[in-house]
Amino acid sequence: MTRTTITRRGLGALLAAGLLASGLTACGNSDTGDSAGGDGKIVLGFSQVGAESGWRTANTTSIKEAAAAAGIELKFDDAQQKQENQIKAIRNFIQQKVDVIAFSPVVESGWDTVLKEAKDAKIPVILTDRAVDSADKSLYKTFIGSDFVKEGRLAGEWLVKEKQAATGPVNIVELQGTTGSAPANDRKKGFAEAIAANPNLKVVASQSGDFTRAGGKQVMEQFLKANPKIDVLFAHNDDMGLGALEAITAAGKVPGKDITIITIDAVKDGMQALADGKFNFIAECSPLLGPQLMDLVKKVKAGEEVPARVETEETTFTQEQAKAALPTRKY
Q1: Torsions phi, psi of 163, nearest 5?
Q2: What is the DSSP letter of 312?
Q3: Whole-angstrom Cα distance, residue 223 to residue 146?
Q4: How far apart are CA 11 and CA 285, in angstroms?
Q5: What does the alpha-carbon distance between residue 220 and residue 305 come to, in Å, rounded to a whole number?
Q6: Which residues of the chain have pLDDT under 70?
Q7: Where in the chain is the domain with CATH 3.40.50.2300?
């Protein structure tokens, strides 16, 4: 009797242990997103800057749709424009053992430690839209995005041509993007290089509007109070330019006429402002990086060589060109 009871208990314990082990294995696969096998899908961990602009929203949509179309499992994180949130997300992706990590860095500096952690974990990293200033290029496989210096230069070159007949000072105010970010640094540099060709063109005020409409409006209000004569506004993105429109109109000035407005991005709202004559020129920065990114994800996962730099194709728009492009604009 005693021997039979012990045998039944032992059998029950063995069954329970077996079920527990099975449950732990299932949870383990779930936590890693099946990246170690599972359904065979590539698992991509992506950390987005945030949702600060229409451009960023279109960029996020492109990435999500492209991942679904490519059969890639996407673990998406919104950093809400904070570097510490992105670093935490990347470390979470490493713990989850994703196959590839991609992110659009909030700022350029301060990434070496976490990127080294990803490299040590043998997880390849792809930079999207924005670069980092790391001296160790082995910490990431490739960077896909726009040439921000070129965008700033195109904006400046258009202005040089537009104001070539000016005989006196042309006062420019500049709405910079997020302080320390690659697009803010590079667009400022490219624009400054281009307008140096005409000594009459002078930047009299330059301040960050953080790539947001609210920031653009607030800083433009300050510019207008401090500078009685503003001839040109150069905004590092459409959203800040759109916010600035409100401040300019409230100050009794006519945007696009009293103040020449140049922006970068070419999202629908910006293109509409250009077509309506409120903006004067836009240098495009395409957010539709999703398909190219998924192609790179598959290649780096397979161990294939990829270019160190993949540049997106972009153009520029005048008011008439915006009118023609708007009906088929995707973003």
Answers
A1: -105, 20
A2: P
A3: 29
A4: 66
A5: 46
A6: 1-38
A7: 35-146+287-314, 148-285
Q: In the chain, which residue ranges form alpha helices assigned H by DSSP? A: 2-31, 54-70, 83-95, 112-120, 148-162, 182-195, 213-226, 238-250, 268-275, 290-301, 319-325
Query: What order do you get walking across the sheet with 309-311 strand by strand?
Result: 73-78, 43-48, 100-103, 125-128, 142-145, 309-311
Which residues on neighbouring strands pair with residue 281, listed in sequence order? 262
- The answer to whether 268 touches 328, Cβ cutoff 8 Å, is no
Tell me the C-alpha distance between 160 and 178, whole Å.
26
Q: Which CATH number fits domain 148-285: 3.40.50.2300, 3.40.50.300, 3.30.360.10, 3.30.2130.30?
A: 3.40.50.2300
Reported as a single tens digit per residue, the pLDDT across 86-103 is 999 999 999 999 999 999
CA–CA gap between residue 233 and residue 168 (Å, rounded):
17
Q: Into which CATH architecture does domain 35-146+287-314 fall?
A: 3-Layer(aba) Sandwich (3.40)
Length of the chain in residues, anyone?
A: 331
Write the pLDDT tens digit of every residue in 227-246. Answer: 989 999 999 999 999 999 99
pTM, two decimal places: 0.83
What are φ and ψ of residue 74, in 5° steps? Answer: -105, 125
